[in-house]
Amino acid sequence: MTAGTTTGTYLDRILENTIAELKARQAQIALATLEAEARAMPAAISMTAALRHSGVAIIAEVKRASPSKGPIAPGIVATEVAVDYIAGGTSAISVLTDERFFHGSLGDLRSVSTLAHDSAVPVLRKDFVIDVYQIAEARTAGADAILLIVAALADEALLELHSAAVDAGMDALVEVHDEAELNRALAAGATLIGVNNRDLRTFEVDLATTERIAALVPPEVTLVGESGIRTRADVERLGRAGVHAVLVGETLMRAPDRAAALRELLR
Predict the structure, then answer these.
(1) 87-103 per-position pLDDT tens digit
(2) 61 is an active site residue
(3) What is the architecture, at CATH level 2, of domain 11-266?
(4) 175 in catalytic set
(5) Active site residue 236
(6) Which one-letter DSSP state was computed for residue 43?
(7) Set 137, 181, 226, 250: catalytic member
(8) What is the pLDDT of residues 9-61, one digit of tens each?
């Protein structure tokens, strides 16, 4: 996708807002300034390496709200959630930075990254990345990885952004929803791929999406299952399908004891 085209899903509204907010930030801080700051940052921690170990790893997500679920945990402090996740044994932390639809911020990313890096836990900037400016923002805020959503990007943009992330020393978690998007991700050089089990049009979630696509993923690619993971049985099911990790947000954010809930998923 490029600016001005549509997906026919809720993504269109989010991307329209992303473009407007991005333009405002670009007017405040020049890309060259951000890139200089990014180059001065300590080296990023490899998220791919953190997810490649025995058993299914967890990427635990800091998430206050979503378009499909509305408010999830509106009053949380991001660093307090991150402390729980680290105590529970997470392999990585995902931080939503979209403000309007997910109630996150770059401030959340910055504070969580500072805390997580003390425990050598990598952090993902979860947002709708459409420009290299956002990659520089992410690195400056301490992110080790970014999310690239294939459905939101034309092939040329996907390739450019993936290359920019690699050049910045970061991982790119490239998200797909079907086989056609998987082929596009692989063509762009993706080595860390997430399969989103949520249908963009209906919001329905089906873990069989990951199972179906996993069979087509080359063994050298690190595979992450996203959306709909609620129980240890779900983790084991996707593990049998071949995933190396799962990304879990809502289930953990709603849990009264997030560390215990995470340990239950990992047991």
Answers:
(1) 999 999 999 999 999 99
(2) yes
(3) Alpha-Beta Barrel (3.20)
(4) yes
(5) no
(6) P
(7) 226
(8) 888 999 999 999 999 999 999 999 999 999 999 999 999 999 998 899 999 99
- Rounded CA separation 159/139 (Å): 19
Using alpha carbons only, give the angle 220, 222, 227 rounded to the nearest 5 degrees: 150
Q: Is 16 a catalytic residue?
A: no
Out of 196, 197, 211, 250, which one is annotated catalytic?
Answer: 196
Radius of gyration of the chain (CA): 17
Amino acid at 240: R
Vertex 70: Cα angle to 69 and 73 (nearest 5): 100
Catalytic residue among 61, 137, 211, 250: 61
- Whether residue 63 lies in the annotated active site: yes
**Which residues are bridge partners to 146 per DSSP?**
125, 172
Domain-wise residue ranges, the chain? 11-266
Rounded to whole angstroms, the Cα distance separating 236 from 171 reads 25
Q: Which of 113, 137, 175, 181 is catalytic?
A: 175
Of 67, 69, 66, 93, which is closest to residue 81 (Cα–Cα)?
A: 93
Q: At 199, list the tokens.
A: 């249908």
Give me the catalytic one of 66, 94, 126, 197: 126
The token pair at 92 is 């990585």
227 is catalytic: yes
CA dist 137 → 78, 102, 148, 218, 242 (Å)? 18, 18, 15, 31, 33
Can you read off the two tokens belonging to residue 76?
A: 């949380």
